[in-house]
Design brief:
Number of domains: 2
Strand order of the largest sheet: 1-2
Helix content: 10-25%
Number of helices: 3
Distance between the termini: 37 Å
Number of strands: 2
Shape: extended
Strand content: under 5%
Organism: Yersinia aldovae
Protein name: HNH endonuclease
Largest sheet: 2 strands, antiparallel
Order of helices and strands: EEHHH
Structural class: mainly alpha
Radius of gyration: 17 Å
Length: about 100
């Protein structure tokens, strides 16, 4: 299959090109989803009771340490739980302990 033709990034004012199916360059990859989520509560965005229940479990599993910092050789207390691979929609926000740190 021939390579895709680079097109202008969909972010207003961006001069980069992309071949990604979203239409956004790597710098603005999550822009479309961010705009879609503006003004919604965390529960409306899919971070409800299940997220609240899993957060202490993830912190205990990781021994309360920032996993990203550990990969860089630093020992720092972890304060938040986030996706390892970004969630790109409500279906991805299901309780999955393996995609969180």
């Amino acid at each position: 299959m021939p390579p895709r033709i680079p097109r202008a990034c969909r972010k207003h004012g961006c001069r980069n090109t992309t071949i990604h199916s979203s239409g956004y360059c790597p710098e603005h990859q999550n822009t479309g989803w961010e705009n879609h989520q503006q003004g919604k509560t965390r529960h409306e965005r899919g971070y409800g009771a299940n997220w609240d229940k899993l957060t202490p479990l993830i912190k205990a599993r990781d021994k309360g340490l920032c996993q990203q910092c550990l990969r860089e050789g630093l020992v720092v207390s972890g304060t938040t739980v986030d996706h390892i691979i970004p969630a790109n929609g409500p279906a991805v926000k299901r309780p999955d302990i393996f995609n969180r740190e």
